[in-house]
Predict the 3D structure of the following.
Amino acid sequence: MKITAIKTSLMKVPNEQPVASYYSHVTYVVARIQTDAGIEGLGYTMLMGGMGAESVLAYLEHNLVPLMIGENPLQVGRLWNKMYDNDRGLRKKGIPVYAISAIDIGLWDILGKSMDRPLHQIFGQHVDKVPVYGSGGFLSYSVDQVVKEAQGFFEKGVRHYKFKIGRPDHMLDVKKVRDVRKALGDKVEILVDANQRWDVATNVRVGRALDDCNLFWYEEPVYADNIAQCAEVARQIPIPVATGENEYTRYGFRDLIEAKAAQYLNPDIHRAGGFTAMMEISHLAAAYDAKIAPHLVPELSVTVLASIPNGTLVEVLAGSPVGLWQDPVEIVAGHLLPPTRPGHGMAFSKDAVKKYTV
Ligand SMILES: [Mg+2]
């Protein structure tokens, strides 16, 4: 089989409320990989708020597409390395890896379609379904709004819920977490996410102050670039730390694991390097008994989680775009099921392509 063409495009998709008040839209950089066998692979990568999407598209078109034309798309591993090795001037963090991820996802889609199998079967399935955590609770939310959003998830059987902390007056957030715990009771696992907003000292004070709130994890305490500081927080607070949504490739996750920066790793399939990197990172983490809970992208993350021994939770964000997918993944009794269609099983709806392609 040979790659004959890769059609690239941008789709600018409006978010629903409440996400829309933070990020009005997401932008998908799309790479449709066409082959001489008539199989098309859907590759895509997503940028919250659209920041950097045009740069990812340019990198994809100028640096990656020419490397792929004429290649055998079934040799996914070799082609991942070809993309990675080609560029000796930009480190594989940020824009280059968003672009590599798009191609990798499209190549795996072709491989699955050519075998008429969903990818979780090809990767070596571990589980049939994956528990969801509901995610949202932005900083501006009142306690009542957080509790209401959490209850919306509980009605769908979801037992884990995450909301944001990280305001300048950290004591306000300590009180907020206490109030949310009181309102939700003990049947619910609560996760908090600081989104890199505090320094080590503040995180340590907050983490220790919340010791009696029985939190499931404490996410991204400090700047993602400062792994040593994340490890310092992890050493000093009694709550398990989660991080990794802003990390790239197996090398980035090796550094997080070696530094003991977190017990829960949150690779993002669009940032980490596609399915190839997600599987490498998951198996690397398994050797350290570190747990994987991918960042967003539930429709693809669920396939990864179904295929690894150390998966925990799949993230579903309140306010994600509606009508985007032909067959969206839906929460069933608190879980997502990996798509059973061949390949990764996802296709944008015709309507969405027409409405949102820029
Ligand atoms: Mg986060």
User: Anything to note?
Assistant: Residues 193, 195, 219-220, 245 surround magnesium ion (CB under 6 Å).
